[in-house]
Amino acid sequence: MSTDEFMLDTDDLTRRMEGALAALRTEFASLRTGRASGSILEPIHVDAYGQSTPINQLGTVNVPEPRMVTINVWDKAMVGKVEKAIRESGLGINPQLNGTIIMLPIPELNEERRRELTKVAGQYAEHARVAIRNLRRDGMDQIKKAKAKNLVSEDDQKFWEDEVQSMTDRHIKLIDQSLEAKQVEIMQV
């Protein structure tokens, strides 16, 4: 059997790693540094109708003033679940109910709150690193399976493994740089 039949789909692996980075950037966008923004709710999902649902699919999200986000929940039965999801999200925002409207006053960021947000940013970055490492494992598994089927030579196996590791290192470095930039942004007064 010829050893040049195996070709790792590095484009797919890169696209999936870029997807993990894009998800991280979305989560970082939700960490606002003082001003209210509807995007702070994007990472929060609610167990609604038997599935995990983003808040913006359960109600209208508005920013009526610089330090307030409101959610007008469409289904009265979901108000409690949405409120609970916000309380448990780690955003550090205390929701206030007014009928089907949930008001989220955005607190002034003190030093302690900024430090909390940098920790949350660190957790988001760690989740992204785990996603990248899982993709690395998938790539390495594909290479090992190809080697087991004699579709790839020892030299090619080493080449592909180095390639996957290089992609992983590059994306982990981008995550670390994004985290550092976000933490600097959060700590600026």
UniProtKB/TrEMBL annotation:
It is found in: Cytoplasm. The gene is frr. InterPro entries: Ribosome_recyc_fac (IPR002661), Ribosome_recyc_fac_dom (IPR023584), RRF_sf (IPR036191). One of its GO terms (molecular function) is ribosomal large subunit binding. Responsible for the release of ribosomes from messenger RNA at the termination of protein biosynthesis. May increase the efficiency of translation by recycling ribosomes from one round of translation to another. Its main location: cytoplasm. HAMAP family: RRF (MF_00040). It comes from the Bacteria. Belongs to the RRF family. Pfam families: RRF (PF01765). This is Ribosome-recycling factor. The keyword Cytoplasm applies. Keywords: Cytoplasm, Protein biosynthesis. CDD domains: RRF (cd00520). GO terms for cellular component: cytosol. The keyword Protein biosynthesis applies. One of its GO terms (biological process) is cytoplasmic translational termination. Residues 24-187 form the Ribosome recycling factor domain.
